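User: Fold this one for me? It's Fimbrillin-A associated anchor protein Mfa1 and Mfa2.
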Amino acid sequence: MKKNTFLYTFLLLFPIIIIQSCSNKTDNIDIETAVPEGYGLIKVDLPEIVFQEENMGGDKNASTKSTAPTTNITVSDGFVCDVKLEPIGTARGLDLSAKSFDKKAATITEQVKKDVRYRLYIFDKTTGNIVDSAKYIRGKESTVAPLKIVGGKEYTIIAYSINSTTTDPAYLANKQNINSAEIINKDVDFMFYKQNITIPNRSTNTLKIKFRHTFSQITTTVKLDNATAAYSYIRNISSASFVKPSFTTTKFRVSDQTITGLEENPLGAPVIFPFIPLTNTSYKTITTTSPTIVNSPATGSNGKMIFEAMTIGGVTRGNIIVDNLKLTPGVKYNLILTFNVPETVELGDNPYFKYYDNSNTNGSTYFDHEVKLINPTYGAQLDIFYLDNSFQLFVNDKPVFSREINFEDYLGSDVIFSDGTWYGSPNSGTSVIYAINKDTPRQEVPIIRLVIDEKGQIVLLGRKSLNETLRILTFRNGVTYTPVQFNPNAENKIKFRSHNWNITDVWGRLYGIRLK
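Assistant: Here's what I get for Fimbrillin-A associated anchor protein Mfa1 and Mfa2.
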């Protein structure tokens, strides 16, 4: 049997296709019978997915920079964060020397999972018109009859998948011509392949497809530097952490493989870390449970990662932002955030308070708890372990909020989470505030935390349940707050107040934080 083998190898940024052309017999099939005069057959195999990994050689098109977060975390007396993008190959024992990478992105391949579903389309290279199409399942390609097309011509082959074993990828829209063809994707792991090939007359050709991802993939690690790890640990990273921009719907143009964001996810792509119970004091480093998939065109310098809350040791800060993320679609990244946080001690002679009243005085009486804090250089925090249902805070005799803020939906909650839910919001699965931590004995876990930083800026955080993390709460119903006059190097008076409405039941702790 005479065999000719055509090998097409292209740059790393493009897929690879191998064509085997047989002029007489292939796999014991009589070509004179199987392939009619003037035609060629196409079979398909899908062996691999190609990944590109970010190098550590300083690629200016894929870098990050940390900036001072909105909560005024400063270099001098706040969280300090070193930000690095590193190749995922570090976890695979690869040679990461400068010579090895030579300032180029590394490319690796992985096997496509069995039963992954994908579609293939064939276009006439000269006219751009569609010729044929088929749907395949990885490992079961032989069950699909070979495609029969006119031989002796050049074609453009495309294939794509959402890396799913249960869901077929969307149909190709405007498929009559490759120049108009496009794919509308939801937030999926979209993979694509495109290649121009010439199909010989009376040949049987096996296409070995290598997909490329069209989304960025980020594995994030938060860790403490050696100095901080000696005296502290990671207590909380909000489950409300995101990479922006990311789109719930994108349009992929087949002809030039450009991506257009159609519907932006208002929160961004979720960054999920393992949940850390409050009693766990062992975490010095923590990595996302799975990579964050960012379905977006190239983000340029506009990308950012947002942590709604982070607690290291006894100190919480909100809205921590790593910006200037320059992510390239199709590239996998390791984002390493190394924190340095000064050692601190807590202040306050009488931090705990607990109060219960069911006399229904209709707001004519109230409960107060005040502490005096001397030199709280790192600010102050209010932890509420149980609340029914409102409070006000005073700093140096001035109210923090425009009125006592209410957390109960029955009265119209004054606070709302970033996902649009609030305590007791209908059909949201978010419990009413007084049902959280109601079991006996109640746990000393803050369901509400109010943070005053050293500049007098305030962040309000809430927990939807004892098994969820703290996340940002913002105000609604006309409630406002003004940054307070807070002196980190002198005495400050901070007072908690809750008016008696029907049942008033509160338990918490009010304390200062000083740099050690």
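One thing worth pointing out: The chain has three helices and 39 strands.
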